[in-house]
Amino acid sequence: MEKNTDSLVPLTVIVPCFNEENVIAECLDSVRFADEIVVVDSFSTDRTLEIARRYTDRILQHPFWSHGAQNNWAMTQARHDWVLVVDADERITPALAGEIRNLLRAPACDGYWIRRRNFFLHKEIRHGTWGSDSVLRLFRRDKGRYQEQHVHSRVELDGRAGRCREAMTHHSYRSLDDFMRKIHRFSRGGALSLHEQGKRSSAWTMASRSLARFFKSYVLKRGFLDGTEGLIIAFLEADQAFLKYAKLWELQKPPRAGK
């Protein structure tokens, strides 16, 4: 539906989503510059698909197994060799869109890292673990593949990687309730990935990993400079780390004998 007439190398934007009616419109509006927009939906029950149809006719539904598996499947559906993966809570700024168009006139690399400006409760977070955040999202699909992890899987690139100067914006949590809901989902996915790798957990692991996460975010990465928001993020990241290893401990327990 969307066409980019000034790029020599065509681009497919992939947007994976599930129940994102509050953010999907701004995301899709920001990627109109692409030659193709593919929305890969995990069977949303809200108005996500209704809204997405205003921007593209390429809406695919696919069962969600893991973050990596979903994105790898999505890449096989793209019509173009170059893909840009954008989450529903992310935005491609006009400056970044222009830079991407210029890069794709004659790509010098097989993929490009993109810096993210992270926002929490409408405030940009400049420190902590969120302050130096980059993701490899623009790449040739035959050169990149997502790690087979349940959450937060990264692209493994078989080739040379460059870096974009401009940044995308990331509005990850709309409220504290939203943050808490995602903590439970991410900690469950993280525990499953560790369990599949044969990792183990204990009371010491839960406590030490949680404390280390807080110390890294709030002290080493200077999250305290972000004020109250930095403190909240550090505590909730520590909570997520604790829950991940608590759920791993639960998974490794032997099943109880039948009643």
Overview of the structural elements:
- This protein has 259 residues and is an alpha/beta fold.
- It folds into 2 domains: 163 residues, Spore Coat Polysaccharide Biosynthesis Protein SpsA, Chain A, CATH 3.90.550; 77 residues, no CATH class.
- The chain is built from 7 helices and 11 strands.
- Strands 1, 2, 3, 4, 5, 6, 7, 8 and 11 form a 9-stranded mixed β-sheet that branches. A two-stranded antiparallel sheet has the order 9-10.
In summary, what is this structure?
With 259 residues, this protein is α/β, with parallel strands linked by helices. The chain is built from seven helices and eleven strands.
Topology:
Blueprint (H helix, E strand, L loop, with lengths): L10 E7 L6 H7 L5 E6 L6 H5 L6 E3 L5 H10 L5 E4 L4 E2 L2 H10 L7 E10 L2 E3 L7 E8 L3 E3 L8 E3 L3 E13 L2 H21 L6 H18 L6 H26 L7
Parallel strand pairs: 1-2, 1-4, 2-3, 6-11
Antiparallel strand pairs: 4-8, 5-11, 6-7, 6-8, 9-10
Helix pairs in contact: 5-7, 6-7
